[in-house]
Design a protein that fits this description.
By secondary structure, the chain is of the alpha/beta class. It folds into two domains: about 280 residues, Zn peptidases (Aminopeptidase); about 130 residues, Aminopeptidase i, Domain 2 (Roll). About 25% of the residues lie in helices and about 25% in strands. The chain has eleven helices and 20 strands. The strands form three sheets. It has a nine-stranded mixed sheet with strand order 1-2-3-13-4-14-18-16-17, sandwiched between helices. Strands 8-7-10-5-6-9 form a six-stranded antiparallel sheet. Helix 1 packs across helix 6. Its cofactor is Zn(2+).
Length: about 425
């Protein structure tokens, strides 16, 4: 079970270099499991026992199954995660030719660690919008091959490199794609047109626009002397998306369950398809009873907001509160913050801890040091949007927001097990 889940995660990460591809991969798995795709522009006909999913912007997804138990009496079991990760996005007019090298200008998306992007074999993926036969269409593309690199400056030319230096995102992060001759020009949109033809057999009249991100081509892997770790890109937060999907697909048909995987968490979630937008509420209002019954159903529901937590790093243990240092392979972490950066309260934390104990899953706690700022996630945003009770949890991780993060190889099984139990739980608090 552990090895199979970990390999499934590795394959999921490889198929999901961008939020668009992650959503596509999730949708494919759901359809294979009998989930029916709904279009927000159409009238919906849902029924008890039905399984459905809907996407927005091609980068966010909500899947739900309607159980046999009455919704008004039993509420919803929701698991929330996000599809996006910090990365380098290509600018609208990106072409740069410097010293005979063709480079692309990039914009930093989210709170990325810059240094790990240097000296990596990078590829490019995302969504391209184009004109074909007088109509505007979009397709996902993925170059897959390593087509770019951001070389480091040699230590001989930067003697202070190991002393720490500020990396300038404008001048130091543009990747190199090729060498060019004197006077030669390259058009990035021509390159995208060639990729559309190669990947989809489409000869576009014009490339109109795009949302494209660079990513590391090195696959995720189970590593360590005893195979104790999973190393890979985008563990924050595709790991939680994958665990939530596996748990939903493994759950029974007794109770109604929802999986929410939204985009733009790393930049505040404020978008039409983000957690701070109307997506979830609009979907729920089309499925749940109206008016008074809607509020009563939501108040009988519970959201598990699953996003990675900071594991205590052996080289930087002083960055943690001494009594709250989650360990990799120590099980899911309940995240708590008195200033509501996390939405956990004593009742929701108690329920999740009870669920872990009942299913023999180890559980840990995280509170940030009182002299440090605390990050946040979709938990407080979703709780304030629809009024649902929430517990913020996640798996402990090293190097969060790096191009290659590290998690425990046992923890995915723990998380999937407790989320499966949550979807099948008869009694919510």
């Amino acid at each position: 079970m552990r090895a199979e889940l970990n390999q499934g995660l590795v394959d999921f990460l490889a198929a999901s270099p961008t939020p668009f591809h992650a959503t596509q991969t999730l949708a494919r798995r759901l359809e294979e499991a009998g989930y029916q795709r709904l279009d927000e522009r159409d009238a919906w006909r849902t029924e008890a026992g039905g399984r459905y999913y809907v996407t927005r912007n091609d980068s966010s997804l909500i899947a739900f199954k309607l159980g046999t138990a009455p919704l008004l009496e039993n509420g919803l079991r929701l698991v929330g995660a996000h599809t996006d990760s910090p990365c380098l996005r290509v600018k609208p007019n990106p072409e740069l030719v410097r010293q005979g090298y063709w480079q692309l200008g990039v914009e930093v998306y989210g709170g990325a660690l810059f240094a790990p992007w240097f000296d990596r074999d990078l590829s490019l993926a995302g969504r391209v919008t184009f004109r074909l036969a007088g109509k505007v269409e979009s397709k996902l593309i993925d170059f897959k091959a390593p087509i770019a690199v951001i070389p480091n400056l040699a230590i001989h030319l930067n003697r202070d490199a190991n002393m720490g230096w500020a990396i300038n995102a404008q001048t130091e992060l543009p990747p190199i794609l090729a060498q060019v001759s004197a006077g030669e020009t390259r058009d990035f949109r021509d390159l995208l047109g060639e990729q559309l033809q190669a990947e989809h057999g489409i000869t576009a009249d014009a490339i109109l626009d795009y949302e494209l991100s660079f990513y590391d081509t090195q696959r995720a892997a189970v590593i360590g002397l005893d195979g104790a770790f999973i190393a890979g890109a985008r563990l924050d937060n595709l790991l939680s998306c994958y665990a939530g999907l596996e748990a939903l697909l493994a759950s029974s048909d007794d109770y109604s369950g929802v999986l929410v995987c939204t985009d733009h968490e790393e930049v505040g979630s404020c978008s039409a398809c983000g957690a701070d937008g109307p997506f979830l509420e609009q979907v729920l209002r089309r499925v749940l009873p109206d008016g008074d019954a809607f509020t009563r159903t939501v108040q009988r529901s519970l959201l598990v907001s699953a996003d990675n937590a900071h594991g205590v790093h052996p080289n930087y243990a002083d960055k943690h509160d001494a009594n709250h240092g989650p360990k990799l392979n120590g099980g899911p972490v309940i995240k708590i913050n008195s200033n509501q950066r996390y939405a956990t309260n004593s009742e929701t934390a108690g329920f999740f801890r009870h669920l872990c104990l009942e299913n023999e899953v180890p559980v840990q706690s995280f509170v940030t040091r009182s002299d440090m700022g605390c990050g946040s996630t979709i938990g407080p945003i979703t709780a304030s949007q629809i009024g649902v009770r929430t517990v913020d949890i996640g798996l402990p991780t090293f190097a969060m927001h790096s191009i290659r993060e590290l998690a425990g190889s046992q923890d995915l099984r723990y998380l999937t097990k407790v989320l499966s139990a949550f979807y099948d739980s008869a009694d919510l608090p």
